[in-house]
Amino acid sequence: MSLMQRPRQSARGQRRSRGFTLVEVMVSLVVLSIGLLGIAKLMLVASHSNDSAYLRSQATELAYAILDNMRANRQTAMTQGYDTPMTSAAANPGFVCEGTASPCTPGQIALYDVYRWKLSLTTPPVGNGTLPNGLGSIVTTTTIPTTATITVQWDDTVAQSAFAPSAVGVAAPMSITLETVL
Predict the structure, then answer these.
(1) What is the pLDDT of residue 12?
(2) 122 within 8 A of 129, measured Cβ to Cβ
(3) Which terminus of the chain has a lower count of CB atoms within 10 Å, N or C?
(4) Are 138 and 149 in contact (CB under 8 A)?
(5) Residue boundaries of the structural domains of the chain
């Protein structure tokens, strides 16, 4: 009789430990999906942060680029030859100061440098740069030593939407300011 009882007990034990129940599987799927959603959100925020950092580095590089041009044409820069307001568009001076047989005057070089800089601030079709709705201004002082303040501004709505939700269509302008003595 003991031989017959053993198979029944082992059969009962096997039924209880065969595998997971449907409820356990559902709970594990819910936990796994919540974890995967968290990872997806983390990747999204990291991507937006990377985009924002890229735009900030581009703006910094553009500010230093015009500063290099100003230092190459220092006398004109010290007499406000490079000054331009934030809202002004890139105005084609009507001449090219690169590779021409007749050299440009320092004033013409300043106008051409500002024109090329303004074009490099914003994205196509307006310009040829990388900053969305990019704007820039240059202000130099008349006092000695001459101080130049270069401000570059752009729309960082896409990246900022990951950090602080804002209404759709509301601009989130970011800017960097570079101030130096010429």
Answers:
(1) 52
(2) yes
(3) N
(4) yes
(5) 53-181
Residue pLDDT, tens place only, 102-115: 688 899 999 999 99
Read off the pTM.
0.71
User: Which residues fall within 8 angstroms of residue 42, CB to CB, at 6 or more apart?
Assistant: none
Backbone angles phi, psi at 160, to 5 degrees: -70, -25
Which pLDDT belongs to residue 18? Answer: 64
Q: What is the mean pLDDT of the chain?
A: 82
Specify the pLDDT at position 66: 95
Closest among 66, 46, 53 to 120, alpha carbons compared:
66
The answer to whether 138 and 148 have CB atoms below 8 angstroms apart is yes
Query: 């934030």: which residue's tokens?
Result: 86
